[in-house]
Design a protein that fits this description.
Rossmann fold; binds nicotinamide-adenine-dinucleotide; six-stranded parallel beta sheet; 15% strand
């Protein structure tokens, strides 16, 4: 008679970070916990090949720790590509704090996070991201020097630099698609009128574009309508509005199986992170004849200002580097056409070439 199989034998081993589908040879993944403050954090350092890994800290009420790990792994890898393509001598990393920013954020928790960052001795440099403000980062900075983008170490709010880069990116896309980079008379739909979207809308309005705007926050829509003479569209239909350019500046995954067939513009060029729901949507956009400005290429203005900004020093050099995002995108669009490749695949290749050249 065979012995009964014990419960211990049939339970499969718990998944490990090395088996995670988003694990991509990350150099370090740190799980930090602080009993006293309730801090749970994951800091993922994807690559330090070009320099210390710079990437924001996101505070989010993840439904479970697995999703937090997925986010940390994916976002940190994205930062390696973004920093490499932006020409920064910085690697890629990202931190997530598993907590609700509206309910759980305390000074003690933020300071404890600073302590976790400090233990990494500068291989990871943190900054603000979703759920974390400049003021929060000031608290983090009480426990570590490895913080960028606060008033003590930089220029403060990166959003205006992100908006400048997005505006130049839109111009590069217009030039590629229509032969002129002039937004005057062009129709543009801006989805998401927050820190970045509102500033992009202002720039486009001042350049003579005709705007349609959308946001789930009605007061923001009303402000844009009043200030820019914009038309408005329901937030969940913004992608389908007929226009020359669609500018997503809200949340990620907006380009997916449902929205791509409905896109009302031949150009998608906006600030939102992780716009493609899945990697394959890059090719789906090209197949549909839509010119897509890869998100991490067009929205790099913020990280450039965070990385290079010095308090009390003029920002002319930083603005020049942010404006060069237009040139980078023009190059990506050209290579994509020459090689018949989707644009994000081209951006990835250019970033990887920089890493491979080390
Ligand atoms: P924000 O929070 O200030 O603004 C986001 C806006 O989008 C808000 O007004 C919100 O109401 C709106 N929104 C949310 N869901 C929406 C929906 N379904 N439809 C329409 N509107 C919706 O954020 P932000 O700093 O302006 O950043 C916007 C995007 O750009 C984010 O994806 C962010 O990750 C990315 N990004 C921002 C920066 C930066 O410097 N702030 C840098 C790089 C990338």
């Amino acid at each position: 008679m065979t012995a009964p199989v014990s419960r211990r034998q049939i339970v499969t081993a718990p998944p490990c970070v090395f088996d995670h589908p988003e694990f991509d040879a990350h150099e370090q993944v740190v799980f930090g916990h602080d009993e006293a403050t309730g801090l749970s954090t994951i800091i993922a350092v994807h690559s330090t090949a070009l320099g210390p890994a710079l990437g924001g800290c996101r505070m989010w009420a993840y439904p479970n720790p697995g999703e937090a790990l997925t986010d940390a792994l994916r976002l940190s890898r994205g930062m390696t590509y973004k920093n490499a393509l932006a020409g920064l001598d910085l690697g890629g990393g990202k931190a997530v704090i598993l907590a609700d920013p509206r309910r759980d954020k305390t000074q003690a928790l933020l300071a404890a996070f600073g302590g976790q960052v400090d233990r990494l001795a500068g291989s990871y440099i943190t900054a603000e991201d979703v759920g974390i403000s400049d003021a929060d980062m000031e608290v983090v900075a009480t426990r570590t020097a490895h913080v960028r983008g606060i008033r003590a170490t930089g220029l403060g709010d990166p959003s205006p630099y992100t908006a400048l880069g997005v505006f130049r990116g839109i111009q590069a896309a217009l030039a590629h698609r229509f032969g002129s980079d002039d937004p005057a008379g062009r129709t543009v739909t801006v989805q998401g009128l927050g820190h970045v979207g509102m500033d992009v809308a202002r720039r486009l309005h001042e350049a003579g574009a005709r705007l349609t705007v959308a946001d789930i926050h009605q007061p923001a829509v009303e402000r844009a309508v009043a200030a820019f003479g914009a038309k408005s569209v329901a937030a969940d239909r913004a992608h389908a509005a007929e226009a020359d350019v669609f500018v997503p500046c809200a949340l990620g995954a907006g380009l997916n199986d449902e929205t791509i067939p409905e896109l009302g513009a031949p150009i998608v060029a906006g600030a939102a992170n992780n716009q493609l729901a899945e990697e394959r949507h890059d090719a789906a956009l090209r197949k549909r004849g839509v010119l897509y400005a890869p998100d991490y290429a067009i929205n790099a203005g913020g990280v450039i200002s965070v990385a290079l900004g010095e308090p009390g020093v003029g920002d002319a050099a930083i603005r020049a580097k942010v404006e060069a995002i237009g040139d980078t995108l023009a190059r990506i669009f050209r290579i994509a056409d020459e090689s018949d490749q989707p644009t994000q695949a081209v951006a990835d290749r250019l970033a990887m070439e920089r890493l491979a050249a080390l």
